[in-house]
């Protein structure tokens, strides 16, 4: 069984919650890094989340599709990120690459919606949004829950820490998109001042965990 191709363009993320864009950018970077390292690595173990072929929709477009049709609160994406981190910390965790990222994403969001929101769509609806069959969606959900040890509770501290990580990532992305700044001031020693990105140690640490 594999994720079906979804005929969709690169949906615009500008009208989506900012956390959606940040999460998609982070997962894209992790996916690209793991794809590049796949040739030199040992064969990837089989996993329910690993498709047999690469889906022909980008992570960004897939994330936009979920955000547009799932109708969940922005906090669900923060919790989905926490669930993914918990999953990938465990032994025999699936690798986040082009073959697995879509299934991991839709399943993590589904689990987060059911835990966080009072009202949510059925598995059948999420299956259509995610481009998988209902049978696959049900199986992925069960496999995901067992993989995280049914540890779905998120403390306020964990939620706040994750928001800090994603906020740091957001600032870095905004600085990357910003036009270059020309220095017009100098220190007293006539050395031009430079603008550097804010510390992103927390984001780097979490990205490393996702790529592990």
TrEMBL record:
InterPro entries: Cyclin_P/U, Cyclin_PHO80-like. It comes from the Eukaryota. Belongs to the cyclin family. This is Cyclin. Keywords: Cell cycle, Cell division, Cyclin. One of its GO terms (biological process) is cell division. One of its GO terms (molecular function) is protein kinase binding. Pfam families: Cyclin.
């Amino acid at each position: 069984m594999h994720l079906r191709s979804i005929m969709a363009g690169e949906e615009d993320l500008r009208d989506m919650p900012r956390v959606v864009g940040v999460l998609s950018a982070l997962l894209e970077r992790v996916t690209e890094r793991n794809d590049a390292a796949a040739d030199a690595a040992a064969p990837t173990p089989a996993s329910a989340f690993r498709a047999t072929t690469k889906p022909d929709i980008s992570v960004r477009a897939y994330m936009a599709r979920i955000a547009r049709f799932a109708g969940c609160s922005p906090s669900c994406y923060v919790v989905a990120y926490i669930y993914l981190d918990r999953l990938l910390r465990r032994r025999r965790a699936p690798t986040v690459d082009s073959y697995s990222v879509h299934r991991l994403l839709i399943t993590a969001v589904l689990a987060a919606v059911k835990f966080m929101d009072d009202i949510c769509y059925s598995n059948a609806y999420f299956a259509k949004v995610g481009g998988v069959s209902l049978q696959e969606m049900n199986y992925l959900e069960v496999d995901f829950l067992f993989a995280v040890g049914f540890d779905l509770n998120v403390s306020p501290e964990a939620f706040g820490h994750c928001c800090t990580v994603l906020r740091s990532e957001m600032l870095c992305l905004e600085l990357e998109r910003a036009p270059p700044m020309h220095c017009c001031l100098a220190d007293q020693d006539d050395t031009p001042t430079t603008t550097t990105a804010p510390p992103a140690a927390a984001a780097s640490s979490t990205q490393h965990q996702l790529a592990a």
